Amino acid sequence: xxxxxxxxxxxFDKPVTVVARQAKLDLxxxxxxxxKSGIEFRSPTPFNEWSEMTVSLQSPNDGGxxxxxxxxxxxxxxxxxxxxxxxxxxxxxxxAQARLASMAQSPFGSA
Length: 111
What we know:
The chain is α+β, with helices and mostly antiparallel strands. It is built from two helices and seven strands. The protein has a seven-stranded antiparallel beta sheet, covered by helices on one side.
């Protein structure tokens, strides 16, 4: 995931749930960007880099839901403006990979 792709990306259409040991967030569509290898989102709370997390996504194409595990690779920002969190997915099923790739290539993501 690069800054260039993030800047040119479009937001994901459905709310996304992010679950970690320390937090569960239901994120609005304008705070989430989908990539074929991960996800970027704005959060009101910080996340520790290298923390493992699970996200639940719902495809805008067919409404199918899936969960994916990942690792936080970056978290920047502050408590006043919020935090920009970048997460790379790990150990995804082939079905989840196909849905993610489809979402990343749609108007809702940034391949």
